């Protein structure tokens, strides 16, 4: 095969890697919107906090003498998901629940305020400098001839693909098979009727915030170890990209969030690989504009039906 094909494969792998994590974050946006029709703009900061908690968890486990790598990574995932789930629950109780039922603009402003608060809280507590995440997983495999360009698939990328697949599968089983999952789908269909039928809608809404925060934590751990650098500002752009992915796929649709995340990640990687990394954001948001112009509901989204 020609070298150009291996180069394309490399960019495709890079795009799917980043796109998988975008999808994890985007699910948090789409679940909250699907149930209460609002955007949680503090969600990107939850992802950022997940990265910091993972860093502190890894440092603490190493300090206590834990050297078994799989157990250290698993510990970082569990601790990060628990802490960020608490943040997600708190955001719903503080920034959303007291304002629910009023003008939609008010909770939106509250969420933006919460985003700024969390970003500055971490900046004051940890400093604004970049922090290097420890490189726990190294090495990989190469694809291509020894004499020419080789596409590489790192072990860290394999972990990202595997964790994303397992997480998406578990979420799908939860939504489709469990009692709480059916309650989530009922709330998404008609929140008022679900409440009248005796389902604790406040608890279901809080649960969606907790699940979204846990998925953002998974993305935070994965991207933190993949890029090796974290700072208090990574949540803003990651949250914006994940929101873009959710809109691309169809806000309110979980498969749409996954498709939008993968599409956005591949678009960015192809742009960076064949043009310049400076243009990747321009192309990504131009894609969003085109989707909104020609299919406002997104690729897999359904047009809103006015309930009377």
TrEMBL record:
<feature type="transmembrane region" description="Helical">
    <location>
        <begin position="46"/>
        <end position="65"/>
    </location>
</feature>
<dbReference type="GO" id="GO:0042941">
    <property type="term" value="P:D-alanine transmembrane transport"/>
</dbReference>
<dbReference type="GO" id="GO:0005304">
    <property type="term" value="F:L-valine transmembrane transporter activity"/>
</dbReference>
<dbReference type="InterPro" id="IPR052157">
    <property type="entry name" value="BCAA_transport_permease"/>
</dbReference>
<keyword id="KW-1003">Cell membrane</keyword>
<dbReference type="GO" id="GO:0015808">
    <property type="term" value="P:L-alanine transport"/>
</dbReference>
<keyword id="KW-1133">Transmembrane helix</keyword>
<feature type="transmembrane region" description="Helical">
    <location>
        <begin position="102"/>
        <end position="122"/>
    </location>
</feature>
<keyword id="KW-0813">Transport</keyword>
<feature type="transmembrane region" description="Helical">
    <location>
        <begin position="71"/>
        <end position="90"/>
    </location>
</feature>
<dbReference type="GO" id="GO:0015188">
    <property type="term" value="F:L-isoleucine transmembrane transporter activity"/>
</dbReference>
<dbReference type="Pfam" id="PF02653">
    <property type="entry name" value="BPD_transp_2"/>
</dbReference>
<keyword id="KW-0029">Amino-acid transport</keyword>
<protein>
    <submittedName>
        <fullName>High-affinity branched-chain amino acid ABC transporter permease LivH</fullName>
    </submittedName>
</protein>
<dbReference type="GO" id="GO:0015192">
    <property type="term" value="F:L-phenylalanine transmembrane transporter activity"/>
</dbReference>
<dbReference type="GO" id="GO:0015190">
    <property type="term" value="F:L-leucine transmembrane transporter activity"/>
</dbReference>
<feature type="transmembrane region" description="Helical">
    <location>
        <begin position="203"/>
        <end position="227"/>
    </location>
</feature>
<feature type="transmembrane region" description="Helical">
    <location>
        <begin position="20"/>
        <end position="39"/>
    </location>
</feature>
<feature type="transmembrane region" description="Helical">
    <location>
        <begin position="282"/>
        <end position="301"/>
    </location>
</feature>
<feature type="transmembrane region" description="Helical">
    <location>
        <begin position="155"/>
        <end position="175"/>
    </location>
</feature>
<dbReference type="GO" id="GO:1903806">
    <property type="term" value="P:L-isoleucine import across plasma membrane"/>
</dbReference>
<dbReference type="InterPro" id="IPR001851">
    <property type="entry name" value="ABC_transp_permease"/>
</dbReference>
<keyword id="KW-0812">Transmembrane</keyword>
<dbReference type="GO" id="GO:0005886">
    <property type="term" value="C:plasma membrane"/>
</dbReference>
<keyword id="KW-0472">Membrane</keyword>
<comment type="similarity">
    <text>Belongs to the binding-protein-dependent transport system permease family. LivHM subfamily.</text>
</comment>
<keyword id="KW-0997">Cell inner membrane</keyword>
């Amino acid at each position: 095969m020609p070298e150009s094909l291996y180069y394309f494969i490399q960019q495709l792998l890079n795009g799917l890697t980043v796109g998988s994590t975008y999808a994890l974050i985007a699910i948090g946006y789409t679940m909250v919107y699907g149930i209460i029709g609002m955007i949680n703009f503090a969600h990107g900061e939850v992802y950022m906090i997940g990265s910091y908690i993972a860093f502190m968890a890894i440092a603490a486990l190493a300090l206590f003498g834990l050297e078994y790598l799989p157990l250290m990574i698993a510990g970082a995932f569990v601790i990060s998901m628990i802490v960020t789930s608490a943040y997600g629950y708190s955001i719903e109780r503080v920034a959303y629940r007291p304002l629910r039922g009023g003008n939609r603009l008010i909770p939106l402003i509250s969420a933006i305020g919460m985003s700024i608060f969390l970003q500055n809280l971490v900046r004051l507590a940890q400093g604004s400098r970049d922090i290097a995440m420890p490189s726990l997983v190294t090495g990989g495999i190469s694809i291509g001839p020894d004499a020419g360009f080789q596409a590489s698939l790192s072990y860290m990328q394999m972990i990202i693909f595997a964790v994303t697949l397992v997480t998406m599968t578990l979420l799908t089983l939860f939504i489709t098979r469990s009692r709480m999952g059916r309650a989530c789908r009922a709330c998404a269909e008609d929140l008022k009727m679900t409440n009248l039928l005796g389902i604790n809608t406040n608890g279901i809404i809080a649960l969606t915030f907790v699940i979204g925060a846990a998925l953002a934590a998974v993305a935070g751990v994965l991207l933190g170890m993949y890029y090796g650098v974290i700072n208090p500002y990574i949540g803003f752009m990651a949250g914006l990209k994940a929101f873009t992915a959710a809109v691309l796929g169809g806000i309110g649709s979980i498969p749409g969030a996954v498709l939008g995340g993968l599409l956005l990640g591949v678009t960015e990687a192809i742009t960076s690989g064949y043009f310049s990394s400076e243009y990747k954001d321009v192309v990504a948001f131009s894609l969003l504009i085109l989707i909104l112009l020609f299919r406002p509901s997104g690729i897999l989204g359904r047009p809103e039906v006015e309930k009377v």
